[in-house]
Amino acid sequence: MDMLFTMLGGKGMSGLLKTGTAILTTLLVLPALLKLFIVTVDEGWAAIRTRNGKPIIRNRPQRRPSHRGGAVGEVVVLDPGSHGAFPLFYWYRLVDVRCRATDLPARELSGAGGHQHRVHASFEWRPIPTGRDLRVFELDVVNVKERASNIVGAALRDVVRGLEGAELPRNDEINTRVIAASADEVRRACGVELVRVMVTGDALTDGYLLSTALREVDREAKAVAALHALN
Predict the structure, then answer these.
(1) 168 — alpha (psi -120 to 50), left (phi > 0) or beta?
(2) For the chain, where are the alpha helices, taking DSSP H only?
(3) Residue 222 — very low, low, confident or very high, per pLDDT cuts 50/70/90?
(4) Fold of 100-210
(5) Beta carbons within 8 Å of 33's beta carbon, 6+ residues apart
(6) Which parts of the chain span the membrane according to its record (predicted)?
(7) How far apart are CA 161 and CA 116, in angstroms?
(8) Across residues 171-193, what is the average pLDDT?
(9) Domain residue extents for the chain
């Protein structure tokens, strides 16, 4: 009991308080403070190092070169994982690099033989968070979807215009042709990767059906005989 009362006395209590405070600081406070300055980048996101709201451009070679490090003049990007940052909210910006889809407006396209299609299509794309591509995506393009839609729509029109027959080919063939015709321009102008182009609907227009019906009437035997009689 004397020992207990001694420990609860002035010097003993002070020592216990100091020891307990040190333990709590080590176990709780320090990890909490460290967690405030750790940036965890998840899969599907890219952490872009920024300064005053603009991407940081690498101006010197890396001390330890890596395959994702980037060359001089490229944007500094943090790979998925945990990274230290101080102060936290001024040093990075998260950009969603997951794939997303954009619908093209329905349009009437004519094939090589004059056959008309009402084409409903969409395309999938995702930002490219490296180098010049990121600078285009972040700084130059006001509306990525609008500009990419115009480029893909123009390429789809040119592809359909060169098709023969009354039916569109399979989606995999159209996807290959449109990507080959527009992927480079979409990346250069918008800083995004064109992943896939899909035709989601195809129907004949009323104008084409009417013109076909009139031509079929003109081809009847009586019409052809009347034309020969005139000659």
Answers:
(1) beta
(2) 2-7, 10-24, 30-36, 131-135, 144-161, 171-190, 206-218, 221-230
(3) low
(4) Tetrahydropterin Synthase; Chain A (3.30.479)
(5) none
(6) 20-41
(7) 9
(8) 93
(9) 1-44, 100-210
